[in-house]
Amino acid sequence: MKNSSIVSDIVQHTGTNNTSSWYVGIATDARNRLFNDHNVSEKEGSWIYRNANSERDARDTEKHLLDNYNYKGGTGGGDKPTYVYAYKITNTTVE
């Protein structure tokens, strides 16, 4: 089941007008995924993550965001992800 609170937080944070410049994903360790794997600037970048409390909720929430909004990203997330994250794509981020 999608987590409506997380959907609301992410949509509000990213805005609904230009979501195609944002990437959405899921991870076991959101901070590592954002700041190391995706090379998002912790201090200067625009990013958000929330704990979905279960793998199923994280996967369903990610799918809902990808299917119903114009975010970049794909399903995946590795082993037992419980965090949903989003970041603004820049010329230094790695998608």
Task: Jot down its keywords.
95 residues; single chain; alpha+beta; three-stranded antiparallel sheet; 18% strand
Task: Please sum up the structure shown.
The chain is α+β, with helices and mostly antiparallel strands and 95 residues long. The protein has three helices and three strands; from the N terminus they run αβαβαβ. The mean pLDDT is 94.
Radius of gyration over all CA atoms, rounded? 12 Å
As residue ranges, the low-confidence spans are: none
Shape: globular
The beta-strand count equals 3
How many structural domains?
1
| CA-CA gap between termini | 26 Å
Largest sheet, if any? 3 strands, antiparallel
Order of helices and strands: HEHEHE
Q: Mean of residue pLDDT?
A: 94
Q: What is the helical fraction, as a range of percent?
A: 25-40%
What structural category characterises the helix and strand content? alpha+beta
Number of helices: 3
Strand arrangement across the biggest beta sheet? 1-3-2
Strand content: 15-25%
Task: Give structural notes.
The protein has 95 residues and is α+β, with helices and mostly antiparallel strands. The chain has one domain. Helices cover 35% and strands 18% of the residues. It has helices at 4-14, 30-37, 55-68, and strands at residues 22-27, 47-51, 83-88. The termini are far apart. The model has no long low-confidence stretch (mean pLDDT 94).
